[in-house]
Amino acid sequence: MDVRLTEEQLAWQAKARQFAEEVLRPHSLARDQIADPRAAFDWNIIKEGSRLGFRTAVVAKEWGGHGIDLVTQALVIMELARGDSAMAKTFSQCWKWSHLIAAFCSPDQKDRYLKKFLDDDTFLLGHAGTEPNSGSDHRLPPEDDPKSGWRLKAERRGDEWILNGEKCFIANGSVAKLFFVDARTNPNVSIREGGTEFLIPIDTPGLRIGKVFNKRGWRFYQNAELIFEDARVPHANVVGEVNGAYKTRHGTFGDLELSANAVGVCDDALEMAMTHARTHRPQSRYFKDNQHVQLKISEMHMLTEALRSFVMRVAGEGDAKIGNHSVNNVLLMNFATDVVQKVTALNLEVIGAHGGGIPARADKIARDAVIWTHLAGDSIQRMKAVRRLKWN
């Protein structure tokens, strides 16, 4: 698909590149190496990026946002991720749920929460789906099995819902001010029929933050437990319909977002490997003249450009609403998962050849890349894609 960039798209790309080079990259390693996962976060970076529009970029213009399309979003995420993948994800995590607000929230909900989101540089968004005993089975649940999926219980009492249970590994969990929360409102049917989505502010009575997870990669990006103990949520905060959570699915943006982020990581790794090969001379000639090194770098370049093309195709199809978009989007995440880990591993091989030491940044982006294994780029995605193929 031919995607020709407009002046506005190129301007967003340039702004993201400058912010990544001047703000994200200079703080990237220092934040990554902080032992306490809570302390790795830096509000100053979020505030500065928010003032440039990177937090509210996808909110519709009629609501006061920038309303950038999917192609522009992919371009921005790629550039931000070159500076720091985890910092880029903190911003784009807000985009994912901005999409959901626009698509499914009522005018009253938009009025109560979207305005706050737009006005507050520290207003981050999150989604609480995963639980200690409910992970992949809520993404592709067995048909008619009431025991699979979410177990966070929500019971209605008058104009309120009382929630009890726990969510874990929740993105932006220790820093977000508003969460989309999936709960079980009918325990006697499958979650496709008995799950409801709620808008829940972090200051809701009965809701508290538990453990912040200490991860190998993406250390800036906060993942935490959310614990609900008789949390009281007004009925007005139900998103869509009661027992209609599966009607408010989050569309295709999440896979595109993570795949674009992977391109940025690959760009960083490729640039690192080429710089090392061009400047390192251990035995009378530069690494760039070593055929073994040349083969590794050419493979890194090939995979990175293939992933970039796939991302731009899916983004372009999404904006134009054409093509076999749903299948391509699902498989894109699988391809990104394979590519980002392969490219960062090749970078380590190039830099570590002939006994060379591994720079901290090469180690960091390889650890970041492992995160993709846990981001739904798995066999379940491929099973979902097969179900969407046209067999006749």
CATH class of the largest domain: Mainly Alpha
Q: What is the typical, i.e. mean, pLDDT?
A: 89
Order of helices and strands: HHHHHEEEEHEEEEHHHHH
Strand order of the largest sheet: 1-4-5-8
Structural class: alpha+beta
Q: Give a short account of the largest sheet.
A: 4 strands, mixed
Radius of gyration: 21 Å
Q: Which superfamily, in CATH terms, is the homologous superfamily of the largest domain?
A: Butyryl-CoA Dehydrogenase, subunit A, domain 3
Put simply, the count of helices is: 11
Range of helix content? 40-55%
Task: Please characterize this protein's 3D structure.
This protein has 392 residues and is of the alpha+beta class. It folds into 3 domains: 7-119, Acyl-CoA dehydrogenase/oxidase, N-terminal domain (Butyryl-Coa Dehydrogenase, subunit A, domain 1, Orthogonal Bundle); 125-247, Butyryl-CoA Dehydrogenase, subunit A, domain 2; 253-388, Butyryl-CoA Dehydrogenase, subunit A, domain 3. Helix content is 49%, strand content 14%. Strand 2 and strand 3 form a beta hairpin. Helix 9 (325-352) packs antiparallel against helix 10 (360-370). The protein is globular. The chain starts with 6 loop residues before the first helix and ends with a helix. The model has no long low-confidence stretch (mean pLDDT 89).
